[in-house]
């Protein structure tokens, strides 16, 4: 892949899809800023692994729902390296429950973690990228934001909002040459889906045209494409990575 920028910040990157995005982008020559909010040992180990493979990486601690911390994090990158060309809003949580039993706080907590955090990231990225009139952001949404899911009214609202928000940011960023896109993974093998029983996994897999869950690296490759110069005319797009489960 070809990239005109140098630095990328990936939120929630110490494990799962975020960690794989970091490895993939580092392999492609970007300096990756690995954001984590807990477990520094995992983030440090990922940085060491990337550096051993000849890549450039740094760890950066903040909770993506904390506006002040997020802004400080972005400023630290720009102060240190002079630019931030790419952002991947990947941090996300679930808190599944049928709507009738869901407390309002259980709804808003997921909205804050998945949508409000990404809003802060997109807005701050737009500010710093505007100075160079160049940049790209990918928001990691979900198939559930496109098709809904029982037990996930909070999660689906956050991810559906993320898809719509990316398009609005794309319209605001276009005149400054800053692109905003989202990806909508289906079922991907990570800690988020490891809790599903084998029976549930088999039921889901049977319904997926490609008959399997996806891997984090299959998501990472799509994110890399959307950030790269190869996607220079792609903005406001929602790229499905779901094995055909939702077309
Ligand atoms: P995961 O294994 O549960 O990892 C989530 C990551 O996000 C963790 O590193 C977590 O940090 C971090 N995080 C959560 N809240 C944060 C916050 N406020 N600030 C900073 N970091 C935070 O999940 P995953 O499967 O890799 O999911 C990554 C993204 O893909 C999420 O947005 C998820 O919704 C989306 N997605 C996943 C799937 C799937 O099937 N796995 C499908 C569609 C979309 P801690 O270690 O501190 O908890």
TrEMBL record:
Subunit and partners: Homotetramer.
Family affiliation: Belongs to the short-chain dehydrogenases/reductases (SDR) family.
Name of the protein this chain belongs to: 3-oxoacyl-[acyl-carrier-protein] reductase
InterPro entries for this protein: 3oxo_ACP_reduc, KR_dom, NAD(P)-bd_dom_sf, Sc_DH/Rdtase_CS, SDR, SDR_fam
GO molecular function, one term: NAD binding
Cross-referenced Pfam families: adh_short_C2 (PF13561)
EC number: 1.1.1.100
Biological process per Gene Ontology, one example term: fatty acid biosynthetic process
Pathways involved: Lipid metabolism; fatty acid biosynthesis
Keyword flag NADP: yes
Catalytic reaction annotation: a (3R)-hydroxyacyl-[ACP] + NADP(+) = a 3-oxoacyl-[ACP] + NADPH + H(+)
């Amino acid at each position: 892949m070809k990239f005109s920028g140098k630095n990328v910040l990936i939120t929630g990157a110490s494990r799962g899809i975020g960690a794989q995005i970091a490895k993939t982008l580092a392999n492609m020559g970007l300096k990756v800023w690995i954001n984590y909010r807990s477990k520094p040992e995992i983030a440090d180990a990922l940085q060491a692994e990337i550096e051993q493979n000849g890549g450039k990486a740094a760890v950066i601690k903040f909770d993506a729902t904390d506006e002040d911390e997020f802004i400080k994090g972005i400023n630290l990158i720009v102060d240190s390296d002079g630019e931030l060309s790419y952002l991947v809003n990947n941090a996300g949580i679930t808190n599944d429950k049928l709507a009738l039993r869901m407390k309002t706080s259980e709804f808003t907590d997921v909205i804050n973690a998945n949508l409000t955090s990404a809003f802060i990231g997109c807005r701050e990225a737009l500010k710093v990228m505007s100075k160079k009139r160049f940049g790209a952001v990918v928001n990691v949404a979900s198939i559930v934001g496109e098709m809904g899911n029982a037990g996930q009214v909070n999660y689906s609202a956050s991810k559906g909002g993320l898809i719509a928000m990316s398009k609005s940011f794309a319209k605001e960023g276009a005149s400054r040459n800053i692109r905003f896109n989202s990806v909508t993974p289906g079922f991907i093998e990570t800690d988020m889906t490891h809790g599903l029983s084998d029976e549930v996994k088999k039921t889901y897999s049977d319904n997926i045209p490609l008959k399997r869950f996806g891997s984090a690296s299959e998501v990472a490759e799509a994110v890399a494409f959307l950030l790269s110069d190869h996607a220079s005319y792609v903005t406001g797009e929602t790229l499905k990575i779901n094995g055909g489960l939702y077309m």
